[in-house]
Amino acid sequence: MLGPPGAGKGTQASRLARHYGVPKVSTGDILRESAAAGTALGLEAKARIDQGHLVSDEVAIAIVEERLSRQDVAFGFILDGFPRTVGQAEALDGMMAGRSPLTVLHIVVPVEVLVGRLHARRVCGTCGTNADPTKPDLGVCATCGGALVTRADDDEQVVRNRLQIYEDQTAPLVHYYRSRPTFFTIDGNQSPDAVAVAMQGALASAMSVAQGEPR
After folding, report:
1. How many CA atoms, within 13 angstroms, populate the side-chain half-sphere of residue 161?
2. Rounded to two decimals, what is the model's pTM?
3. If you ran DSSP here, which 8-state letter would residue 2 be given?
4. Beta bridge partners of 73
5. Mind telling me the catalytic residues?
6. Looking at domain 9-210, which of 3.30.110.40, 3.40.50.300, 3.30.310.40, 3.40.190.150 is its CATH number?
7. Which of 24, 39, 142, 161 could form a disulfide with 34 if both were Cys (CB 3.0 to 4.6 A apart)?
8. Domain spans in the chain, listed from the N-terminal domain onward
9. pLDDT (tens digit, 0 to 9) for every residue of the chain, 215 residues total?
């Protein structure tokens, strides 16, 4: 899942994971769990994320490499929040050796739409799940019942800083992946259901490519 903050990567990654019956691997979720547990890595990462910065390549790669070594991802997985730099993408290519081809779904959304989404976003203060923006805000998490809050890194100025960091450091991934037959651009400025349908269509095409059929 490739796209700027607010593009809907987390929401769509969860939907795809449920649809295909594979795990969602989210570096953000893993780091938030580490921070909640009070680990040094988690607290350091939380401080950087709250300021709108990315964690180091070394930390992100180590987290994903360990997660992808587990048995539950043997038949596939959805990656959310990784890679974010070309260095991470190169490391991921190494991790994918011997697996099916990596499919890249690039979600595109206008900048001002992203700013509005992120500034209004609510998340669970207990489990970190994003509130569904298509449903009424009842103030509690639909997953665990925890209170919904505004994330520290969703302050408008921090949001704009995060989008600039994305443009500077993560957008080059589009150029890194664009020539691959399993790279797809998805219009994220439509309803979540429409985005999900587009993604499932792209993945069907990617599976055909993996089987040697024309795209």
Report:
1. 14
2. 0.77
3. B
4. none
5. 9, 84, 121, 151, 162
6. 3.40.50.300
7. 39
8. 9-210
9. 999 888 999 889 999 999 999 999 988 788 777 777 777 777 777 777 777 677 888 888 888 888 899 999 999 999 998 998 899 999 999 999 988 889 999 999 998 899 888 877 778 888 877 787 767 777 889 889 899 887 766 677 888 888 888 888 878 999 999 999 999 999 999 999 999 999 999 999 998 877 766 55
